[in-house]
Design goal:
It is a single chain. By secondary structure, this protein is α+β, with helices and mostly antiparallel strands. It is built from 13 helices and 39 strands. The strands form 7 sheets. Strands 6, 7, 8, 9, 11, 12, 14, 15, 19 and 20 form a 10-stranded antiparallel beta sheet that branches. A 9-stranded parallel beta sheet has the order 29-28-27-26-23-22-21-31-30. Strands 5, 10, 13, 16, 17 and 18 form a 6-stranded antiparallel beta sheet that branches. The longest helix is centred in the last third of the chain and has 23 residues. The radius of gyration is 27 Å and the shape is globular. The two termini are 39 Å apart. Bound molecules: alpha-D-galactopyranose (GLA). Alpha-D-galactopyranose binds next to loops.
Length: 726
């Protein structure tokens, strides 16, 4: 068991592969956080971390420690509103008397083998029972009857803990949930830097690093989706942590809607981190006997720097988050029609793409936006999910059959959560869009959002999709989401429940995605939201890959891919070679090879040299697939620290092969280029497949490679592929 409870000192100890997390049932049932860090064998922690002591203006409780205990001065395992702790609260429940003072104390606990499923929400799952154990700690507010269960799942062989919280109204009167964060974690000092990923459309997930400061520092989304602007990921790393050294604590929210991650440094220089649904746009009515379950947070601890943290996230997401056939099966190499044709295509043009792509070894044609309703631009037809036969003469099936006939797979694009005001569906059901009473809707990209909180709406969209997809054997579906939610309300919700809208919308989307994956288990799904605007673990539960960004310029892609890799594996990152002119086609491919790899260009317009280059790249894709999709990533030179060059490498799990890539973003000031590789077996010998030179892993990692003389012009790049010498 990875979890123990010492009944003498009443300390819970949660042990992952490399870390210990401990907290205590203190006097009067308060839960006090004790420790989170590198693994320790014993649990004699209480005296060390208990703050205690009197502090002016920090309220104390007479019944605890003779008045020397204040929740405001103590590391609280799950902080609550209004009962003596003025710092960030993780939980606030407005009770039937109208106040929101919330004070939960320990009642009981259970430790179980395995990990119970989270109902109706994405979550990490286990592949075998012995992988993890779960602790459920029941607490209760004795005054209101709110029963709050803190749930922790501890992975035995991974540095991972997941957390969520369940609240049940155990009284006979209504309660209103005002905030419910999925985790609260305390650190005794403020000696950390905060890492997070910010951006915008076409520039997603750049890295921001800032030293913790007194007060609150936070990131959030109120957009109805996780969004382009901040990713639901935060890490705290010890000062001067690097890719290889130092401690890093990573937190990632398995949720695709409004989130908040907040970090507060208090007057004692200690730090509290909370992560969960953004309370600014959330509320939930809890009728007597009803329960609310929060989404899940994944926590990773690394004492091998940020690189170790990232590799732990990559492993657990590949093994315990991504599901279905395409979790392990090799994914088809695709070409997407969007940048090649936008809305301007017909069946012949698409078939010509397929034929030309097939010649080069590409395996699947994806027909992007524009195949349905009357959609010739982005002003119409979302919601009218029937084939535009003016474009696809002879219907979808005839095109798909022809493409299948030449041995290519076929993919299709949908944007199921949207409705165009200019559509048949909107004319028939104007109340199906997300809206509030008496207010005109804002438009974005000429479209409204459809009300996913409604079962009848979801049924309609599902039936439309099912009709098309069951009549035509489609191999892949790109699920897009091209605006954020404003005037957030549903025609079906009573006034007191309108505050539930955003969360209900997300649950509705999950339900529809779940139905689709069940109905078409063999179909590969790729998520997308104007590029990477909903690039979060919630979505990876339903689709093993997400389009990383609409920006396909390979130099711009570097910050996007380096940032994304903080917690997301390359096998999840949609990355294509486009017609972008800034670099030659080899650099475009070298960068896209980090991700899922594919093409996003008109194959009929390739010149002879590029046509031949693609054939070589296709071979390389197959050759490197195992190492890039299943291997370990090492970020060697990041574009956040070096304006000239970026370099990274993948090493296969058995350390028998490695792929090194370097890209020149801007000509370096000097030509000398030495680099130490990482992650190899020091005792093994490796052959550089291009030159035939053989080096020990120890040499490559300690002396490094002398790459002076490799290309240095802007936009140039090269790879080196090493295989173990048997
Ligand atoms: C979004 C996606 C693109 C493409 C278009 C189609 O912007 O990110 O890849 O699918 O929509 O409208």
């Amino acid at each position: 068991m990875a979890i123990s409870f010492n009944s003498e000192n009443r300390i819970f100890k949660l042990d992952t592969s490399n870390a210990t997390y401990a907290f205590q049932v203190f006097e009067a049932g308060y839960l006090i956080h004790l420790y989170y860090g590198a693994k320790i064998p014993d649990d004699n922690l209480a005296a060390f971390y208990y703050h205690g002591g009197f502090a002016s203006f920090s309220p104390s409780r007479w019944e605890v420690e003779n008045g020397n205990f204040s929740p405001d001065m103590s590391p609280m395992e799950y902080s609550t509103e209004g009962a003596g702790d003025f710092r960030l609260s993780a939980l606030a429940i407005r009770n039937a008397n109208g106040d929101n003072t919330t004070d939960v104390r320990y009642v009981s606990h259970k430790i179980i083998a395995g990990k119970p499923d989270l109902p109706a929400m994405p979550h990490l799952y286990l592949n075998s029972e012995g992988e993890a154990d779960t602790l459920e700690v029941l607490t209760e507010d004795a005054v209101t009857g709110a029963k709050v269960t803190l749930v922790y799942t501890v992975f035995r062989n991974k540095p991972v803990i997941t957390r969520h919280v369940r609240v049940e109204n155990g009284s006979d009167r209504r309660m209103d949930l005002e905030r419910i964060y999925s985790c609260c974690v305390e650190f005794p000092t403020m000696d950390y830097d905060m890492y997070h990923l910010y951006g915008r459309w076409s520039k997603e997930r750049s890295l921001q690093v800032r030293p913790l400061a007194h007060g609150i520092q936070s990131i959030c989304s109120k957009r109805g989706s996780s969004g382009h602007y901040h990713n639901p990921f935060v890490a705290l790393a010890t000062k001067n942590a690097t890719e290889q050294y130092g401690e890093a604590y990573g937190f990632n929210f398995v949720y695709s809607g409004n989130f908040a991650a907040e970090v507060e440094v208090d007057s004692s220089c200690s730090t509290r981190l909370i992560m969960g649904i953004n309370p600014e746009s959330f509320g939930w009515v809890l009728e007597p006997g009803s329960t609310f379950v929060s989404p899940e947070v994944v926590m990773v601890y690394s004492n091998e720097g940020l690189g170790g943290m990232s590799r732990a996230f990559h492993d657990v997401y590949r093994e315990n988050l991504v599901r279905g056939r395409w979790k392990t099966e090799k994914r088809p190499l695709l070409i997407n029609s969007w940048e090649a044709a936008f809305f301007d295509f017909d069946a012949e043009k698409l078939f010509a793409f397929a034929e030309r792509a097939k010649e080069m070894g590409i395996e699947m044609l994806v027909m992007d936006d524009g195949w349905f309703g009357k959609r010739d631009d982005d002003t119409t037809s979302l919601g009218d999910w029937f084939v535009n036969e003016k474009k696809l003469q002879g219907g979808l099936k005839s095109l798909v059959d022809r493409v299948h006939g030449i041995g290519m797979k076929f993919g299709i694009w949908y944007e199921p959560e949207m409705i165009s005001p200019e559509s048949e569906l909107y004319k028939a059901h104007p109340d199906w869009c997300v809206h509030v009473a008496n207010r005109a809707n804002s438009v974005a990209r000429h479209q409204y959002v459809i009300d996913m909180s409604r079962q009848d709406v979801r049924d309609n969209i599902f039936e439309q999709m099912y009709g098309v997809l069951s009549a035509t054997p489609v191999d892949y579906l790109k699920w897009d989401f091209n605006r954020n939610i404003t005037e957030a309300g549903s025609a079906l919700l009573p006034p007191e429940r309108q505050k539930e809208f955003f969360h209900r919308f997300v649950l509705g989307t999950y339900e529809l995605m779940g139905r689709l994956t069940e109905a078409f288990p063999d179909m590969l799904i790729e998520n997308c939201s104007g590029g990477g605007g909903r690039f979060d673990p919630g979505m990876f539960y339903y689709s093993p890959q997400i389009w990383c960004s609409d920006n396909t310029d390979p130099i711009e892609r570097l910050t996007i891919q380096f940032g994304s890799s903080l917690c997301y594996p390359g096998s999840c990152m949609g990355a294509h070679v486009s017609a972008c002119q800034r670099t030659d086609i080899d650099t475009r491919a070298n960068v896209a090879m980090w991700g899922t790899f594919g093409y996003e260009l008109d194959p009929c317009k390739l010149n002879e040299a590029d046509y031949e280059a693609v054939k070589v790249q296709v071979k390389e894709y197959h050759r490197y697939y195992n190492v890039t999709h299943n291997g370990d990533l090492y970020r060697l030179i990041t574009p956040f620290e070096n304006a000239h060059r970026a370099a990274w490498m993948f090493v296969s799990k058995d350390k028998s092969e490695a792929l090194f890539t370097a890209v020149v973003m801007r000509r370096p000031e000097y030509e000398a280029f030495f680099i130490r590789l990482q992650g190899l077996d020091p005792n093994a010998m490796y052959r550089d497949e291009a030159t035939g030179e053989v080096y020990s892993g120890a040499l490559l990692m300690n002396a490094g490679l002398n790459l002076t003389g490799t290309p240095i012009t802007d936009g140039s790049s090269f790879t080196k592929y090493f295989t173990i010498v048997k």
